[in-house]
Write a structure and sequence with these properties.
It is built from three helices and two strands; from the N terminus they run αααββ. By secondary structure, the chain is mostly helical.
């Protein structure tokens, strides 16, 4: 059987295909690594900005760290679970009462427009 593959050039075509697949996988992995690095840098900068903003609010507004922690817990519990996330689940449309996803700015059934939070992605 190996003679058949060599005779019709299938053995080298298969190796070339595998090499191309390996190169694409390597490029994809490299690009993913670059995106992760950029996200890490962005997150570090965002955390620094949040810390600076909190210190301004605390120092100028007379709030305490306990006030901040209480507010964080309140926001965390808005989705019903104290888990360090605020992931709003599907909800009933206030106009037609059908369940809609938070991904949409309006009801897919009746067209009612939802007012979104500034912090919704």
């Amino acid at each position: 059987m190996p003679n058949f593959y060599r005779l019709y050039g299938l053995e080298s075509a298969s190796a070339a295909g595998a090499s191309a697949d390996a190169q694409r996988a390597s490029t994809t992995a490299h690009n993913a690594e670059l995106r992760v690095r950029a996200l890490e840098e962005s997150l570090a900068k965002t955390l620094m900005i949040c810390e600076a903003l909190w210190e301004l609010v605390r120092d100028k507004g007379g709030l305490t760290d306990a006030d901040l922690f209480a507010k964080i817990q309140e926001v965390d519990l808005r989705d019903g679970v104290l888990d360090g996330k605020n992931q709003v689940k599907a909800f009933p449309c206030p106009q037609c009462q059908r369940t809609v996803s938070t991904r949409h700015a309006r009801c897919l059934y009746c067209g009612h427009t939802f007012s979104k939070s500034t912090f919704d992605l």
